[in-house]
C-alpha cells in the first residue's frame, strides 16, 4: 500500500514549491490541509493534485484570487488572463507603476508584513517563469537583493511597532501608578487634617 500523506518538506520537494509558499497558498487559497497528532501539516494525494492545478493556473497567468475561485467551484470568466490583457487598453505611462518597488508597495497595501513580501517575491518569480525570457544574472540578483532588503525592512518595522506599543503600555502603567499615588497622598492629607481638628 502506498504512502497516504507527506510532510510540508516532502511536499515541497515533490512539487518544487518552497515550504513558505505552500503555507501562503494554504492561507490565501483556503486549502484544506490536514494535520497529524503533533499539529504538523500532512498533504494527501488530493492536496498534491490541487497544488499541481495551482501551478498550472499560475503558469497560465491567473491571479491567486481567480485560482481560489476556480478551486472552490465559483464562476470565473472564460477569458484567460492573457486574452484579458490583450483586450485591455494600455494605461497611460504616468498611471503605470514605476517597477518592482511600486508593485511591492501596492501589494503591501493589501497585505501586511512578511506575507506581502512573500507575495511580491512569488509574483516576481511567476512573471519570470511565465515569460521564458532569461534575464541577466545581475538583474535577478538585484531583484533578490531588493526583496531581501524589503523583508528586513518589514521585520524592522514590525519590531519597531512592537517596541513602540510596549513603551506606550509602560508609559500608561507609570501614569496610572502616579495617579494612584496622588490619590493616596490626597487621602492621607485629608485624614491628617481631620485628626488636627479632632
Topology:
Elements lengths: L7 H8 L3 H10 L5 E2 L5 E2 L2 H15 L4 H8 L9 H7 L12 H11 L2 H19 L5 H61 L1
Antiparallel strand pairs: 1-2
Helix pairs in contact: 6-7, 7-8
Structure description:
The chain is mostly helical. The chain folds into two domains: 85 residues, Multidrug-efflux Transporter Regulator, Chain: A, Domain 2 (Orthogonal Bundle); 72 residues. It has eight helices and two strands, in the order ααββαααααα. A two-stranded antiparallel sheet has the order 1-2. Strand 1 and strand 2 form a beta hairpin. Helix 6 crosses helix 7 and helix 7 packs antiparallel against helix 8. The longest helix is centred in the last third of the chain and has 61 residues. The protein is elongated and about 90 Å long. About 10% of the residues have low confidence.
Amino acid at each position: 500500500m502506498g504512502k497516504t500523506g507527506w510532510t510540508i518538506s516532502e511536499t515541497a520537494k515533490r512539487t518544487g514549491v518552497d515550504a513558505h509558499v505552500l503555507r501562503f497558498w494554504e492561507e490565501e487559497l483556503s486549502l484544506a490541509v490536514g494535520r497529524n497528532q503533533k499539529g504538523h501539516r500532512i498533504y494527501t494525494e488530493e492536496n498534491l493534485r490541487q497544488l499541481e492545478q495551482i501551478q498550472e493556473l499560475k503558469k497560465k497567468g491567473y491571479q491567486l484570487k481567480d485560482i481560489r475561485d476556480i478551486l472552490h467551484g465559483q464562476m470565473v470568466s472564460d477569458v484567460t488572463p492573457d486574452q484579458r490583457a490583450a483586450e485591455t487598453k494600455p494605461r497611460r505611462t504616468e498611471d503605470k507603476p514605476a517597477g518592482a518597488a511600486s508593485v511591492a508597495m501596492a501589494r503591501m497595501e493589501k497585505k501586511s508584513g512578511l506575507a506581502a513580501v512573500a507575495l511580491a517575491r512569488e509574483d516576481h518569480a511567476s512573471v519570470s517563469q511565465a515569460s521564458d525570457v532569461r534575464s541577466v544574472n545581475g538583474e535577478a540578483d538585484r531583484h533578490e537583493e531588493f526583496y531581501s532588503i524589503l523583508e528586513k525592512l518589514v521585520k524592522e518595522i514590525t519590531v519597531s511597532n512592537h517596541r513602540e506599543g510596549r513603551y506606550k503600555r509602560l508609559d500608561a502603567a507609570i501614569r496610572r501608578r502616579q495617579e494612584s499615588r496622588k490619590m493616596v497622598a490626597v487621602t492621607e492629607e485629608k485624614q491628617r487634617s481631620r485628626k488636627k481638628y479632632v
